[in-house]
Amino acid sequence: MISRRATLGLGAAALAATAFRPALAASDPIIVNALGGLINPNRAIGRTGPPPPMEADFDARAIADAKASGLTAVNATLGYVFGPGDPYAETLRSLDAWDAILAAHSADLMKITKAADFARAKASGKVGLIYGFQNAVQVGDHLERVDEFAARGVRVIQLTYNPENSLGDGSMAPANRGLTEQGRRVVAKLNEARIMVDLSHSGERTCLDAIAASKVPISINHTGCRALTDLPRNKTDAELRGVAEQGGFVGIYFMPFLTLDGHPKAADVVAHIAHALKVCGEDHVGIGTDGSVTAIDDLAAYQGALEKEIAERAAAGIGTKGERADTYPFVVDLRGVDQFRKLAALLAARGIKPRVIDKVLGGNFVDYAGRVWG
Question: Which helix (H) or strand (E) holds 300?
């Protein structure tokens, strides 16, 4: 999902913040959100008319909250995902806009283009921004655009969103086709350009075909485990295992698809991470929350905006099974600037060793980036 959603309200969760802060401060790991955002979703509440570009909701609070959370870097969705407009033109416009944001906030933000940049961001106290796409339709039949995007700093390209495209099928495409010939050409070109091939949102056959076709480890940057919750946006053990065996990365999200009722709790996030660790091993699992850090201040007002957004997604044919007007696109008791600290404490309570927790919080993504980006 991609939206200006209520990721991470403070509210009552803030009362527990100090209880979890020491647990993370003791090791002070690199924290990488393999799919998230750097926006203030409150800016969108009450807005009328067509939604503006995502960067319209970026502000100083988004930076401050990201820093307060301990976040080192985030793979933020740029460019075209769905909707009207030319995908290529919209993507270029988005890249220009985020380049301008980074230039204007160079004291606080930096672009991540190589694995060594994570340590640089951590040491400098800046928030690192990884340029990523959640669709590859902007590539189209023009493989040379992959080189263009790579030169602009794009380091992650997801093959499909929920519907089908010319590369393969998304998770909601009923045919569940595999990777198309064009998809195979794009995967090969992404390998050549050292750009991460992300199979989040893909159908199962497309994902398995891409694992087999790629010469470089691939990722599923934001997903859940279908063995625990049988919904299309979650990945089967075969997909998870295939990614890990190839040396890839799996990020677990904080989304309603973690439970069938659409109302997951922090314990469900921990359960999905634990299952992924069992299937993939401790070197291949991390987090991709699918959200920003800044809190929604008025959840009642947000509920109305969410109902409208879910209806619009369904009408556009991009919604997915498991998202409804009564489901929040976040985990209710794992929100706010202390979400990573709380997650670390809950994983420790589950019996997961500190070194593994540090890997899940960011170390595994950094290592994976080194294998792909060089």
Answer: helix 299-315
3-state DSSP assignment of residue 200: coil
Instruction: Please write the tens of the pLDDT for every residue from 79-129.
Output: 999 888 999 999 999 999 999 999 999 999 999 999 999 999 999 999 999
Angstrom distance (rounded) from CA 357 to CA 160: 30
Looking at residue 155, its amino acid is: R
196: helix, coil or strand?
Answer: strand
Question: What is the rounded distance in angstroms from the CA atom of residue 290 to the CA atom of residue 3?
Answer: 9
Helix axes 181-193, 144-151, angle to 10 degrees: 30
Confidence band for 11, pLDDT divided at 50, 70 and 90: very low
DSSP run (H or E) holding 203: none
Convert 6-28 to b/e letters by CB count within 10 Å (16 or more is b). bbbbbeebeeebeebbebbeeee
Nearest Cα to Cα of residue 135 among 97, 109, 162, 111? 162
Tens of pLDDT, residues 287-339: 999 999 998 888 888 877 777 777 777 777 777 777 777 888 889 899 889 99
CB atoms within 10 A of CB 308: 11
Q: Determine the average pLDDT of the residues in 334-350.
A: 96
CA distance 148 to 164: 24
| 154 contacts: CB under 8 Å, gap ≥ 6 | 78, 79, 95, 131, 132, 133, 195
